[in-house]
Every structure is written in structure tokens, then in C-alpha cells.
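CORE FACILITY INTAKE
Project code: CF-77B
Contact: R.S. (postdoc)
Sample description: multi-component assembly, two entities in total
Requested service: structural model of the whole complex
Turnaround: standard
Below are the sequence entries exactly as provided by the requester. Do not edit them.
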Amino acid sequence: MTSGLGATGTPTPLVIGDVLGALDSIGVPVPQLLQMADSIAFIILAAIGLTIIFGMMGVINLAHGEFIMMGAYITTLSVNVVGLPLPAAMVLGALGTAAFGAIIERTIVRQLYGRLLDSMIVTFGLGLILTQGTRIIFGNSLQSIGTPFGNVPGYTYSGYRVLLLFAAIAVLIGAYLVFTRTEFGIRARATIQDPETARAMGVDTDRMYTVTFAIGSGLAGLTGALYAPSATIVPSMGQAFLVESFVTVVTGGSTVLLGTTLAGGVLGTIDAIFSNLYGNFIGQIALLVTAIIVIRLLPDGLTGLANTIRDKLGERQ
Amino acid sequence: MSLDITGLNAGYDGTPILRDVEFSVDDGEIVGIVGRNGVGKTTLLKAIMGLLEPETGRIRYGGEELTTMGADEHAQLGIGYVPQGRDVFPDLTVRENLLVGESVGRDDETRYEQVYEYFPILEERADQKAGTMSGGQQQMLAIGRALVGDPDLLLVDEPSEGVQPSIVQSITEDLRAISDEFGTTILFVEQNLSVIQGLADRCYAIDHGKIVDELDGDALADRGQLEEYLVV
């Protein structure tokens, strides 16, 4: 089966092998480094859509994992059934989930702004419907589309998983640029800070909420699309992303993109170290313990700490 | 374009604040709404801006019925708004705050050059977070943000509140100059006598949510008469 991005077993770009070989030659523990990169990429990609929706709209979307599952399903079905090349299928996965998110915002979430508990219950129910609905329609699993690029030369490690780190960085940079360098992003941030004044400045705040929710949903869909070639495609696959994404939101704090970046780096490193030494179960426990410690010591999360350090440095200058 | 308010009743959660308010503002005029704290001045501006839905009555601007439109549509028809307490977007820079104001107005025309001419501090501090500026500077930003989209009507809620007297004087002169230069109609609410006398062509006095008097000419120059409506 070909994927378009690179058939299963297509070699990982040689430059990655060369770089890792060079790192190995100077004593860098490359396997551990790869695992760390994998963990960081997973956490950032799992959390980015949720952090945008929660950080900018105050809605805790408990169906976030199912949005990721939807992206993976659209991508997999587009490759397996329609025969689309993998990159086109991934774009379709992200756009399809974004469109679904926009519909959900317009029909359901819009009624729940300012009602945090209600929004959690409703989105939890939505997640159950999506999971069971997918199971009824498509069965217990989909045929895998296979992982492109094969292993990193010289290592028993998937080259595609290495590329996911670059995808995570690209997604973070893209989201940063959208929310800080575009008129839409600036108006969206104004809407989040003070919706009434934003409306009085001519901003269509209803549209801002719909588009922001669609972007967050689309990023969840993109995450599912990116992991579709390397994950087992089952209706409950979203649950694997949900814990990491919530721990990241809590640990990161209020500043959406900085929080995701800091939390992704810290949690990814901790997860990689503990999973490598003691296995995945202990890695998950280490993540949760880290979140508890951060909440206890830093109520405003890692971004609160970063802002405090920045303010102190500013006072000294 | 004139603003016409007829039989306006509005309030919060069933509690009436405005009662049968009627008045009009002609094109290019500067009109003040004066009154003590809690008599409905801010509520009136919010209702005109579309931030508070009237229970009954009509709000027409330039012949268009605004009563059922949202605030964003009011802004797009050319109504700029400077809220009480300024309400700049604190985490956005000065430049970003001004960009948000671009949506005000009927067309894509912007007035950055003129805004920077009146308030040079906004250009100097374009990259500063708005929340870190002084009260006076934030007031200038709030006025600049409402002006940058080229509005025909400017609603200003207590421009003197929380601003030091020397800056209040400057802002008063700037608002008068802006109206003279661009023909901008201004409707403002205020309790500060020097701002009222320095800015208004005429005033309406409001008490317990009703317009109770109209002051112009000699009446506006008479501090004693104005104080009747301002002092508790």
C-alpha cells in the first residue's frame, strides 16, 4: 500500500541519519534523545487544539480526544477507501474536523459559554456519542495505512516519529503566527480579553468564537491525521491523547502557546526519562505527579513562572 | 447624520434604569449628558451602542433603525465608542489595540496619521502593552482606537475619570479639535464641570433615568445651574 508521502519502508531522509550519527559520535545518547523528541511531539500535538479552545474561549472540550480520533479516521479512510495520497488525506482530516468543530460550536457550545461545568458534561457526552457512533459505523478498528519512511538509518526507531517533532514545532510556530501576526488573531485575542469592548469596536465576536473553535478542532484533527500512519485506528484511540493534553493545559498555565511549549518540553522530557527507565506506566505516573507538583507550587503554571522571571529581569534593566 | 432617541426604556435583569428617554443629536454637534452617579448615563450610552438591548423605544442614526442591531453592527455603521474606565485590551500592544478599532466605520478608510498627530504618545509606544500605560495614556488610546476607523459619531463615557487634571484639559481640547477637523459628532457623558463647559455645544441633564432638562448657551456657562444636576 502506498501512502503518497512515502511508501512504508521508504528510507528516512538521509540528513536525519547523518545528524543522529554525528550526535552519536560525540557521545549523545541518541535512543534516549529520540524517545524524548517523540514524547515532546506527542504532548505538544495532543494538547495544542485543547489549549487554544480552553485558553482562548474558557471551554473545556472533553471530546478533544474524539476530535483527534475523527482526524485519524478521516485520514485513514481517505487513503484506504478513496485512494488519496497521504498528505492530501491529512489535510482533509484536519479540515474535516475543523468543519465539524465549527458546526458543534454553532449548535451546541455557543449555548454553554460561561457555564464551565455544563460545557464539560455536554462535551463528555459528545465524546461518548462520537466513540460509539464510530464503532457502530466503522466497526472496532480500521485497517492501518502503514508508517512511511521506515526506520532511522542505524537505529530501530521510526523515521516518521522523528519527523513528528518537526511537525509539532511547525504547528506551534504556525499557531503563534496566526494569533500574533494576523488581523484575525489580534481580533480573536481582543475578543477573549474583553468581548463587550471588542463588539463595540466592530468585531463580530460570534464569528471569532466559531473560527477559534474550528481552529482548535482542526488542530486536534491534524494531530489525529499525523498519528494515523503510526497508531492503531480504533474508536477509543482519542483517550490516549486526552490525559497528556489535560496535564499539559494544567501545567502550562494561562498563556496558550508559551504554556504548551514549556509544558511540552518539561513533560516530554520527564515522560521520556521515566518511560525509558521504568516503562510507559511509570512514565504516565511521573507525568501526573509532575502536574500535581506544578499545581501545588505554581498556581499559574509554568507560564506564571516564566512571566515572573521576565518581570524581574525587566525591573533590573 | 443625526441621532434620534425616542421613548427609550432599558435596564438590567428587569430593573428599569432608563425611562422614556427622548433626545436628538445633530450632525457635527458635541452634546453632553450630565448627571450624578447612578442616574443612567453609562446605561444610556451602552443602549445607544447596542451593548444593552432596549425594552422599548427606538434608536435611529442617519435614518437607520439601530434598535435591534448588535454593537458590532453599530460600530460598522460609523459609531465609535470610548467606554467608561477606558477598557483598553491590556495584553495587546498599542498598535494591536488600534488595529482592533479599524473595524469601526462604514468603509476601509483609517485615520492612523491623524490619531498619531493628536496623540503622538501612541506612535512612540506602539509596541508597549496597553495595560502598562498610565490612565491618561490609556484614555488617549481608547479615544484613538475609537477614531482610527473613521467614525461619524463618537460616544465617550466619562473621559475625565481616573485621569490627572492636566491630561483631562488636553483630552478635552483634542476632542473639540477632532470634531472641528473631521466634523465628527460627539455624544459624551461626564460629571466634570470643566470638561462639560469646555467641550459641549449643549447638554441634556439626566436624573433617575429620565432626561429632565436641556442646557445650552448661558445655561451651560452657569456653573451653579450645572451643579444642580451634578451635586448630590
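Facility notes:
- Chain A touches chain B through 17 residues (CB under 8 Å).
- The first helix of chain A runs from residue 14 to 25.
Invoice: internal transfer
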